[in-house]
Fold each of these.
Amino acid sequence: MTRASETPADATAAPTGPRHAARAALRRAAVEPGSGTGPALPRSGPAGRAVGLRARLLAPVADRGNALHPGAWWLWALGLAVAASRTTNPLLLGLIVGVAGYVVAARRTDAPWARSYGAFVKLGLFVVGLRIAFSVVLGSPVPGSHELFTLPELPLPGWAQGIRIGGRVTAEQLVFALYDGLKLAALLICVGAANALANPARLLKSLPGALYEAGVAVVVAMTFAPNLVADVVRLRTARRLRGRPTGGVRAVLQIGLPVLEGALERSVAVAASMDARGYGRTAHVPTAVRRTTDVLTLGGLLGVCAGSYGLLAAEGAGYGLPLLGAGLLAAVVGLRLGGRRSVRTRYRPDRFGPRSWLVAASGVAVALLMIRANAHSFDALHPGVVPLIAPELPLWPALSVLPGLLPAFVAPVPPASPTREEPSA
């Protein structure tokens, strides 16, 4: 009697779909050449080494052991944000947003915080509209000769000189407001990409011991928005299934109460878990060490803030990078000393592996290349509005954004879920 083909015991637990099956087959072929239905692969020689190298370079399916460090995602996103802050060219800003969106689509999981990316995109569009509305109502210092329409101007007292409400609205001021709003929207979307890709709980666990108390507050604040979005989506879906309206003031009021109740329940659960884990206990540290730690940490963080502002400002790259480096060094030393007060331990701490370094380096590379491009191609990165000219996509700045796509190929692939599985043949 012919026996049916046997399958491994863990085949039902492994991710399915053509993409994962092809990747698993390639790895099996690299380990056991000749197995399977395809042609036999050589065990040694140049061809065998090429197959083994390709299998090692393929992004593995994500699990607890090979997941990317959450700090790598934030460094990558902040690098894209720095690049977006160096230009007002809408084509370059659209390219940066496209790179961030592609990586999010390729490496986003089904976790609640991963659903917040769409909310950040909508917030960015709202910022663009609000910036244009402010320009129309409050005017703009940008002169223009292409008048579109004139609003009734509200007379203001003498102490409000320089401020006007209403008046002429020109095409130049609207285009300037659009460019400015697009830059702010790109910054928000980059932050939203980090919020959708990085696990906030693991980010909290990776913080130094000296920042544990502050980190709890920051992570709770970061997780509030994603959980709020998830609750709203869940409640709107439930109302739609019951045939109830999901729009209007009444629907918003009926949805708001369960959302607030869920937020309160999560707060109580977090407080109970913190109390059970001994949150707030500290070890004894000499006074001199504590004061030195405070000075180094505070001075380092101020240096980091000033250096970051210099990198994000239009003309601060000269002093921003050295100040950022000195601030980081002082902050690391201070946090290292301050960690002596923490008596907590880490269970399976996250480490910066080679793939995490590649992801972080890709964001830093985009920021550095865009800063250098801003120094040599300022006019291309900041198209003029007086006179009005059509923006062009400069070649080298556009190529400088492309390294930001690296995480979509080197980061571990999220495991397939039943809702995201591709239909098998």
Amino acid sequence: MYDGLTLPNYLASVADSNLFGSLAFVCLILILTGLHRRWRDQLWHRLLTFICLTTVVVMELVGSYYANLPPA
């Protein structure tokens, strides 16, 4: 039974992919490189940290929104 490409189906496939593992790995690298002042003060490190934190917040907001929708 194929329901087509809907947003809930897309989000379910993204959740089952390696998105969370990849995000956790990138965050781990940023944590380890953040221990050194020379790397922490670089623009690329600040930008990647901001992107990782923003991604976590957006995933939480989207998940909370769809979790609170009434069942179809």
Amino acid sequence: MRRLHNILGLALLICALPGCSPVAAVNTTARPATSAAKAPTHRVDGNLAVLAGKFKNANRAPINIIQFGDSHTAADLFSGEMRRLLQARYGDGGIGLIAATPVSGTRYEQVILKTAKRQWELVSARNQQSTQFPLGGYLSVPMAANPSVRIEAREPTAQRYRVQALYQARESSTLVLRDGRGRNQRMLAATGGQWRFGPQVGNLGLPLDLTLNSRPGTLLGGWYIQGQKNAGVIYSALGINGARLEVQDKWQAGWQDNLKTLRPDLVILAYGTNEAFDDTLDLALYQTQLRNTLKRLRQDLPRAVVLLVGPPDSIKQRKARSCAARQPQQLAQVIRIQRQAAKQANALFWDWQAYMGGQCSIAGWQASGLARGDLVHLTADGYKKSAAGLHDFLRTQLGLK
């Protein structure tokens, strides 16, 4: 009964926003390759040289990387190892954009989100039919007076951060931030029904407690956490379990403006597994969606490098006799479409399946402890190995030693 009450309250709160439709709460639920996949024969335009230069000067200015994806990204093991490798070499620029409140089935490599019960209702764009979600696809609705969130570091750190809220407010609200050194307060001005990043609060440490003194119609979409030094690599992992590329169509029109505000230097699209498992997938429509997405990214972020990460190898029909029959029906076609779309958009493409060893290679990875028993997802070691492959590929493309 309490769950039903929360859902009804959520719908009423969201419907109070201009142009909004109600949404309900969501239930979230071979042999290893020895070398990196070969580089594509085409080259991205001068953006590669620009990005290479930024890596070489990362001690003086930040490099912002944003990865969109499905469950392979939501676990932040694959992206987490990429973050670790890049930050170890080029400096820790911060944590990036994370959800505002805990998301069941999703984790962050560097931080843990905690909230008290019955303070928030989280809604995911995974399977909700609304076009009001923010960048990243998670929406947190206050369900109590002055709800709070605590952000803790997984490992002790003395690093200081600058923090901004991604929010939407019908009326002005107040955000209170407390760390071990004291208390800060900032006003979150009314946004006219749009998602916006709030004022930046600097010199904050973890753990950090954030309390929202909210008015009706205030929603949170996430926290953007940068290093105080304004240098090094910032790597945001925006993954949703079960997501496809089309999940971005549920984000509020203009979400690209929020993306541009973050000024990404590298945008990674890591979707494809869930498309591949859909036997009824309209391949022509998927191809059009992907091309349009890449075209829009090129228009909105003309100086950024765009990288498509193909889906990893997987097996759907375990008892089928041939390797081809064991594979998801659409997997080969999804990889083909991604490769072609990347070439046409002058973007990079990394073939994750090829790196693993080709078709049905995940069986070998599972036997070696690198893939899980579902023959879809990898273990922590498998994701780390894959990240090392992508890291090597990216460095090769950028000409970095």
